[in-house]
Design brief:
Shape: elongated
Strand order of the largest sheet: 2-1-3-4-5-6
CATH class of the largest domain: Alpha Beta
Distance between the termini: 61 Å
Order of helices and strands: HHHHHHHHHEEEHEHEHHEH
Radius of gyration: 29 Å
Number of domains: 3
Oligomer: single chain
Number of strands: 6
């Protein structure tokens, strides 16, 4: 199963590589359906499993092939070669074929992409280099598996520690921005406005509880209100909802207001179904941060 999955991933990556180079679109599902159908039919005639080949695709591209019918021509030539030229090519050094493939593949290596990722997102650059050198050292299948595993690990790490921002009002506007980037933004005594830029699920619930405790400890004045800007929270699962219940109960016991702004309808639906909406009370849900802050200042 793992080898088959890697084969499918390889097929899509090869297709996307040539699609980007030649500026056309592909439908990944259609590519996989065609590949699966080919293997299904081949299984009835004891044929070899069908998969994409980066080296053969590179040779075809280097030769200027632009039509899938070129594969039919190549198949015909291979058939004729096996019939009539095998004895003449039998002793041809393997290095000759390797040289042809290497020259073709070298043209597909995009060094500018590495430079681009180094400037834009270094984590993606390191994943690219890790996968590249893994395929060189341990093999294509194992190398791609290593790249996939590390990609999933990085994804899980980032989702369990989502980006958050402490917000402040910019000037006299209704805009609120990250204090790290707008240190001159206005803050309010005893009020912390926090934005969570991720879905809220069981994987990052402990992160939120720890963050709220840390913010309360670091607050220069006694904490009166926490306002959560929820515009970036697109999903709320049962585990996260349960943690919000605990946070709301804890804050209520200590007379700290918990308010939400810009809650999306799917998230609000979960809150209402679980009773969290009634526990926090309707008056503590606002359309935007500005309304929440004005409600705070009017108390």
């Amino acid at each position: 199963m793992a080898i088959a999955a890697v084969g499918y991933l390889t097929t899509i990556s090869i297709a996307r590589t040539f699609a980007d180079r030649n500026r056309y679109d592909i439908a990944p599902n259609r590519e996989l359906i065609a590949l699966g159908a080919s293997n299904f039919v081949a299984s009835f005639s004891q044929g070899f499993p069908v998969s994409a080949s980066f080296s053969r695709s590179a040779v075809h591209a280097e030769a200027g092939s632009t039509s899938p019918y070129s594969l039919v021509v190549v198949a015909a030539w291979i058939f004729l070669t096996l019939l009539f030229l095998t004895e003449y090519l039998y002793y041809l050094p393997t290095a000759t074929l390797a040289a042809i493939i290497i020259l073709a593949v070298l043209g597909l290596i995009d060094f500018t992409l590495v430079k681009h990722l180094r400037k834009t997102k270094q984590s993606d650059m390191w994943l690219l280099l890790l996968t590249f050198f893994s395929t060189l050292i341990v093999g294509i299948v194992e190398g791609i598996l290593i790249g996939v595993v590390f990609s999933l690990g990085l994804f899980l790490y980032l989702t369990t520690r989502p980006h958050t921002a402490i917000l402040g009002r910019v000037g006299n506007t209704a805009d609120f921005r990250n204090l790290k980037h707008y240190p001159e933004a206005t803050t309010y005594t005893g009020v912390i406005i926090i934005r969570i830029d991720a879905q809220f699920y069981f994987g990052n619930v402990s992160f939120l509880k720890t963050l709220l405790k840390k913010l309360e400890m670091e607050s220069p004045s006694p904490l009166k209100t926490i306002i959560i800007e929820a515009c970036s929270i697109a999903q709320l699962d049962s585990s996260a909802d349960s943690v919000l219940h605990d946070i709301a109960d804890d804050f209520k016991e200590r007379n700290i207001e918990l308010k939400f702004a810009s809650v999306k309808v799917p998230v609000l639906r979960v809150m209402k179904a679980s009773g969290l909406y009634d526990k926090i009370e309707e008056r503590n849900f606002f359309m935007n941060i500005d309304d929440a802050v004005q409600g705070e200042s009017s108390q």
